[in-house]
Design goal:
Rossmann fold; alpha/beta; 7 helices; 241 residues; 8 strands; 23% strand
Length: 241
């Protein structure tokens, strides 16, 4: 993320949660519930985009992946296990320290960087992901443009973010923070993007959105793919043919 997109207050907020990031019952419990669902979507898009075998355990072998706003590595590590050469970048140095330590403990070689996306070595990636990040940056248009600039020709970009609806304000902000499901101050509802708004930003960056799906509540699993987009949604984008 460039200096035009990093919000220092947001970076400090999430950096303060770094030590707790990998605790499925701690302050990041919501992310631990979201992660398997997001991974299912990402895996499905990977297989469809590169016409892979759904039974292949390492579908990203020979490919590079960039996870922006990677936190302590909840998504970067599964991408590495899928065979990708993974780079993770986050605005909070505390998160990167936690990510590096955890990756070492898992025997995973992941390149982690703290700070600006623009400060990474030049290069593009086959897969670019950014989960629950665009709503925390100071300039969403500049942020999306930087993500697009890092996407290689023929590559795949996947984003997820909360929707700006009355229901998301009630459940993701007011109720979730009141009962402690997420730390207070995590969400600014006014910064949430509606699907058509995010799509416009992606198209302005030169990409095309070719798939979108809701991330909706599930009594059994916490969240499920499909259904309503009122709370959260994922989009997949690529360079036009």
């Amino acid at each position: 993320m460039s200096s035009a997109t990093i919000n220092p207050n947001e970076a400090a907020h999430f950096g303060a949660l770094a030590a707790d990031w990998w605790d499925p019952h701690g302050s990041s419990a919501m992310l631990h519930k979201l992660n398997p669902v997001r991974l299912a979507y990402i895996r499905g898009q990977i297989d469809a985009h590169w016409h892979g075998d759904t039974r292949e355990r390492r579908p990203l072998t020979g490919k590079s992946a960039l996870d922006v706003g990677c936190g302590a590595g909840l998504l970067a590590e599964p991408l590495a296990r899928m065979g990708a050469a993974v780079t993770g970048v986050d605005a909070a140095p505390e998160n990167i320290a936690a990510a590096k330590a955890h990756a070492v403990g898992q025997g995973l070689a992941i390149d982690y960087f703290a700070g600006e996306l623009a400060e990474l070595p030049k290069g593009q990636f086959d897969l670019v992901t950014s989960m629950e990040v665009v709503e925390h940056v100071s300039d969403p248009a500049a942020f999306i443009a930087e993500l697009a600039a890092r996407l290689a020709p023929g590559g795949l970009m996947i984003l997820s973010t909360p929707n700006r609806t009355a229901l998301s304000k009630l459940l993701l902000v007011e109720a979730a923070e009141r009962i402690g499901a997420v730390p207070r101050g995590t969400h600014d509802w006014d910064q949430f993007l509606k699907p058509e708004e995010l799509t416009e930003l992606i198209e302005d960056a030169g990409l095309e959105v070719f798939d979108r799906t809701g991330l909706s509540p599930s009594a059994a699993k916490g969240f499920k793919l499909g259904g309503s987009e009122a709370l959260n949604y994922l989009v997949a984008a690529r360079w036009p043919a």
